[in-house]
Input
Amino acid sequence: MSKSICVAFFIFVIFYMLGLGFAVDFLWLLKVIPILILGAGVLTTKPSSTRSILLLALMFSACGDLLLAFDIFIYGVGAFLLAQLSYAFMFKSYWTGIAHRWPLSVLLIGGMVTMAWLLIPSLGDLKIPVMAYLCAIGAMGLLATQSSLPIRWSVLGAILFIISDSFIAVNKFIMPIPFEAYWIMSTYYGAQFMLVTGFLAAMKQQNE
Output
């Protein structure tokens, strides 16, 4: 991505994080602008199937952001599930096998199983959609760790996305996290930036 796109992204991330401390009526708009800026950066690249899927992932993410901002939780989860499946599909193109980075994969599986064990007693009627989402993001993470892409940036972005969603799950279903919005959104924006940066770098390398 261009330097101007990166600068604009981080400026609006800062605006949003500052807005969390105030009763800003248009905070929902500030929330989605960084993702739209990443989409604009993707649009400047050469058309390809990867670019199209990456744009879909960002579009579903933006929809999820808006739905969660207005506390429409179940549909927000659905939108982000589609985003995770989009990212998983892209990682699948770089899959090298289960033996690749297997220690990291084992740690990830252990984390997902632990999270499921902690969440299930508190989910109630949301058990099926939340478990479906957990499976989707877990699959995305495994495909990332087992891909040929370097740890920096996309793989780290996938792991950071899982951490961000874990903050959401713990805060909503297990126990309150102090300053939860800052933890959730800082890791979320970092994850999206790393994912997009990594995939665009891979696309550029393929075209050279």
Q: What stands out?
A: The longest helix spans residues 180-207.
